[in-house]
Amino acid sequence: MESSRKGFCEEAVSRTLDRFGRFDVLICNAAEQHAREEVIEISEEQRFRTCQTNIGGHFYMVQAALRILRRVHPSSARPPSPPIAGRTC
User: How is residue 2 annotated by DSSP?
Assistant: First the structure.
């Protein structure tokens, strides 16, 4: 998938900003899944590509989007406070 590439994500955010003039929210919804009877049927290449798309793509998109969101909404585009050790919700 294209969204697994950092350059694609940066370009997507840039094109969105160019087209709409602003960027308020990011929704990451790209993923891939390949049904198998058993986990041993999944090749190393398949596992890598799936993880790169499902995790890496979201990571790259958030990185690219945060650069814009922090300029537009500096107080609202901050990560939450880190959890306190031993504390649960």
Answer: G
Name residue, tokens 């306190």. 84
pLDDT tens digits for 15-39?
A: 999 999 887 788 888 888 888 899 8
* 48 vs 88, more confident: 48
Q: Which residues contact 61 (CB under 8 A, 6 or more apart)?
A: 3, 9, 12, 13, 26, 28
Q: Helix, strand, or coil here: 15?
A: helix
For residue 31, give the amino acid letter. Answer: A
CA 74 to CA 39: how far, in whole Å? 44
Element (H, E) at 46: helix 44-51
In angstroms, the CA 39 to CA 86 distance is 33
